[in-house]
Amino acid sequence: MKAVIQRVSQASVCIKGQIYSQIQQGLLIFLGIEHSDKEQDVVWLSKKIANLRIFADENNQMNKSVIDTKGQILLVSQFTLHAKTKKGNRPSFIEAARPEDAKPLYESFVERLSIESQKQVITGKFGANMQVDLCNDGPVTLIIDSKNKE
């Protein structure tokens, strides 16, 4: 699993010109699921994200997690995070999980992240064509891969 995590002051998802979901200050997470991902990836990544200390404390140091703040979480599925661009100019998505395999893991991730963060996880719509609007706060953007635990 790959996640692009952005600290945002606001973010929203629109589908067919209508706001589908939105948050204020918190985390916007783009989640890509690959065919080799398992439940242990869900557990590790959800715990890692919930506990990331990327919010400012009283000394303006990044020492607080989304758990410690009143921040919200917006999760958006994004299979294109697994694009391979080595050959040619057209990305290959061969590593991305098929929708029928990815959706149960996505739903499990939503549930697990909610438990780990002690917050409701707002989502986009799995498999939909979405327009995401955000204001990156900082900017703070992190990329985490459950297969490369650095």
Walk me through the structure.
The protein is of the alpha/beta class and 150 residues long. The chain has a single domain (2-145), classed as D-tyrosyl-trna(Tyr) Deacylase, Chain: A (3-Layer(bba) Sandwich), CATH 3.50.80. It has helices spanning 39-51, 99-117, and strands spanning 2-15, 18-23, 26-32, 55-56, 62-64, 72-77, 121-123, 131-145. Strands 1, 2, 3, 6, 7 and 8 form a 6-stranded mixed beta sheet that branches. Strands 4-5 form a two-stranded antiparallel ribbon. Helix 1 (39-51) runs parallel beside helix 2. It is globular, with a radius of gyration of 15 Å. The mean pLDDT is 96.
What's this, in brief?
By secondary structure, this protein is α/β, with parallel strands linked by helices. 21% of the residues lie in helices and 37% in strands.
